[in-house]
TrEMBL record:
Coiled-coil portions: none
Ranges of biased composition (kind: Pro residues): 138-149
Protein name per the record: Copper chaperone PCu(A)C
Compositional bias per record (Gly residues), positions renumbered to this chain: 211-220
InterPro entries: LpqE-like, PCuAC_sf
Domain of life from the UniProt record: Bacteria
Organism: Longimycelium tulufanense
Disordered: annotated segments: 98-159, 201-220
Length: 220
C-alpha cells in the first residue's frame, strides 16, 4: 500500500523537475535573444557600408560629408572614406574603383595590399575631416606600402594611405541616398556595394543649442 503511494509521489516530483528545467531553458533563450538584438543594433549604428570577399574586407565605406551642406550637386567630386583590409597571407592589390553614376574615380597613393595589411583614406578618422592635409593616427608619412612584420600573425600592420575621389557625379546626391561603387582587386575580384554619405563631423546639437531652439539653428 505504501509503495503505491510513494511511486505516484515520486513521479509527480520528476514531472515538476522537468517543468522547472524547461522553464529555465526558455528563460535562457529569452536572454540570449535579447543579446542578439543588442548586437544587431550596435552593428547597424555603423554609418558606412561593409563587405568581405575572400581575404579582402572593405569596411566603413562612405562619401565624405559635403562641405556646403548635406548635398552634392551634379558634376561635383566626392572624396571616399574607406578602410580596405587584407586579412590573409597572400598579397593583393586594388586595381580600380568605378561607379555607373560618376564620370570616373581618381586613386592616389598606395594600392598594394600585402598579407595582413590595410589601406586607409585620409578622412577615415573624424579628426582628419577638420585637417584633411594631415595624416591621422599613422606615424608613417610615406604613401608607399610598408612591409608587414613577420611576427604580425593575424594582426594588421600599420595602414597604408590612399586617396580615392569620385569625380563628376552624374546626378545630385544628398544625405540618405547612396552611390553604387565597384572595387576591383587583382586576386579577390570585384566587390560592389551601395555607399552612403557620411554623417556631419560636427554634431548638429551644438548648432541647435546655439540658437536656443532646434528650429532656429538656421537663423544665425
Amino acid at each position: 500500500m505504501s509503495r503505491e503511494l510513494v511511486q505516484p509521489r515520486a513521479a509527480r516530483m520528476r514531472q515538476g523537475a522537468v517543468a522547472l528545467g524547461v522553464g529555465a531553458a526558455l528563460l535562457l533563450a529569452g536572454c540570449s535573444a535579447g543579446q542578439i538584438t543588442q548586437t544587431d543594433t550596435q552593428v547597424a549604428a555603423v554609418n558606412g557600408a561593409a563587405m568581405t570577399q575572400g581575404d579582402i574586407a572593405v569596411r566603413d565605406a562612405q562619401l565624405a560629408y559635403p562641405k556646403d551642406g548635406d548635398f552634392y550637386p551634379q558634376g561635383a567630386d566626392a572624396p571616399l572614406i574607406v578602410t580596405i583590409v587584407n586579412t590573409g597571407d597572400n598579397p593583393d592589390k586594388l586595381v580600380s574603383v568605378s561607379s555607373p553614376d560618376a564620370s570616373g574615380v581618381r586613386i592616389e597613393g598606395s594600392t598594394e595590399l600585402p598579407g595582413h595589411f590595410a589601406l586607409r583614406t585620409p578622412l577615415t578618422d573624424p579628426d582628419d575631416a577638420a585637417r584633411p592635409g594631415q595624416p591621422a593616427g599613422s606615424p608613417s608619412p610615406s604613401p608607399g606600402a610598408p612591409s608587414p612584420s613577420p611576427a604580425a600573425g593575424n594582426r594588421v600592420s600599420e595602414p597604408g594611405r590612399v586617396e580615392i575621389t569620385i569625380t563628376g557625379l552624374k546626378y545630385g546626391l544628398r544625405s540618405g541616398q547612396t552611390l553604387r561603387l565597384t572595387f576591383l582587386f587583382q586576386n579577390a575580384g570585384e566587390i560592389t556595394m551601395d555607399v552612403p554619405i557620411a554623417a556631419p563631423t560636427a554634431p548638429r546639437t551644438r548648432d541647435a543649442g546655439h540658437g536656443g531652439e532646434s528650429s532656429g539653428g538656421g537663423g544665425h
